Amino acid sequence: MARIAVLGGTKFFGAKLAEQLADDGHEVTVISRTQNLPSALQNKVAQVKINTETQNGESTPQRITRIASVISEQSFDVIVDNISWLENDVDTHTAALKRTQFKKYILCSTVAVYNQWNRDIPQSEIHAHTLKEEQADLSQPDFSPKISNDALTDFYSMYCNGKRHAELELNAFAKNNLNIKTVILRPAIIEGVSDPYNRTWYWVQRLLDGGPIIIPKTHPKTLYKNVFVDDVVTAFHTAITQDHEISGAINVAGEDILSVKEYILLLASGLGIQTKDIKICEAELADITNKIPAFEFPAFFAGTGFIADIEKAKANLGFQPTPTTKWLPDIAMKLSLLAKNGLLADSLGYEKRQSELEYYS
Asked: b/e per residue, 169-182, with b = 16+ CB within 10 A?
């Protein structure tokens, strides 16, 4: 069994992954900033708390020394990095952790590293336009995705570029440390009941109130593959535990390609709401997203013809994603039960829901 460090493992898929690894008998340490372990992980994993972000006036060497001093007593076989998304993050973590003599480094990246976002894909040509891993051109790591909203564009410019830099840093590290295996996984939008941003709840709450569902008016029309949190955990678990060599990055996404309307109708089916009872209206994206933090936008908001190819995940990880028809309606049903029991706060922007209803009624 392996000694595994999970950087960022106190919530959502990181916590589920840490729990599964611990249940398998691995010795797991969660390295986190300030969050406490969830109850499911207590007595199962160890925890080291450290603020991995740069402190005021701190140089990169000082940051490396500070982080290394906290974990210098540790010894890990595998590093799972869920938190690197700023320039120099991977450099800092590998330098700080290198003294632990780890054998494998797994980076959680994102499909957002691709710069082929704003694509108008004819419905009849969907499968000819999937994006393979080698199409992510990282030679110019800084780019500005063309998205139909300034807040989204600004955020994704920072987030995409941060992940692109992290991938470049890990690739450079791999070339200079051939004895250490490196794996980069690129998940699509991850959905699950325990999503800390409650992005799916945005749509479910509006379906439950019976009013019209306002979707963004975008061009191109959104076509996308999301992914179930349990499938992401499985992909990471396989990458951690299997011995055969994996080269390059791997997309992790679902099999099904959905439009916004198809996505909403699947959620509705989990709530027992008939299609004839759903009114879907379009509005300008800026009108909907006003004052909503960009990272917490619900799935299927940006106008993107973006479809990730997952053949490499199937070949290298034995990846078989759960059909969206099985897990997405189930998430909707479970969220509705949580809400019924008073365990969910209002979704983002719901304080403006009455004005939406009045405008579109």
From this structure: bbbebbeeeeebbb
